[in-house]
Write a structure and sequence with these properties.
Blueprint lengths: L1 E6 L3 H12 L4 E7 L2 H11 L3 E5 L7 H11 L3 E6 L4 H9 L4 E4 L4 H12 L4 E2 L1 H9 L7 H9 L6 H8 L3 H15 L4 H10 L4
Parallel strand pairs: 1-2, 1-3, 3-4, 4-5, 5-6
Amino acid sequence: MIRVLIADDEDMIRTALAALLRLEDDLDVVAECRDGESALAEAERLRPDVCLLDLEMPGLDGVDTAARILRRVPSRCVIVTRHARPGVLRRALGAGVDGFLPKSRPADDVAAVIREVAAGRRYVDPEIAADALSDERSPLTDRELDVLRAGARGETVAEIAAMLHLSAGTVRNHVSSVLGKLGLASRQQATIHARERGWI
């Protein structure tokens, strides 16, 4: 049996998918979680073979959850998402995720991907993979991305500076450079832009 953990904050989707996967002879859904934190706790407790994680969850998103699970548990992770952005695929693969597919796929396909991943193979939806190959790369430097990451929850310039061991003036210079490169008016817009493209 392949032991599966499912994490999705949408109750109807999570419970319906769990019910459909339980109809498969070789799959055992051992946990249903509403967010990344509970998925991490249950993965550590139950040590499932495959964790099926929604990308868009409150708190820890699916990629962050997968990265933490993979550091602590010998599991495999599959990300499912309604909005498959190419940059997020790159971020997911960088975190060690083994599968990536849109929520528009039927339950039979999800079961097949779980089997592929449990057998040690990777699966990436072909359309998403093709989009990722043609998607733009980040024009921002690593330090500029660090500044956006450090301020992603609305931290002040002083807080970002302390976190990154930089002066407030240097942080302001990086923010100014980011806004100029992206043609945006605020740090918040830049953070959203970078997140949507999977740069941070």
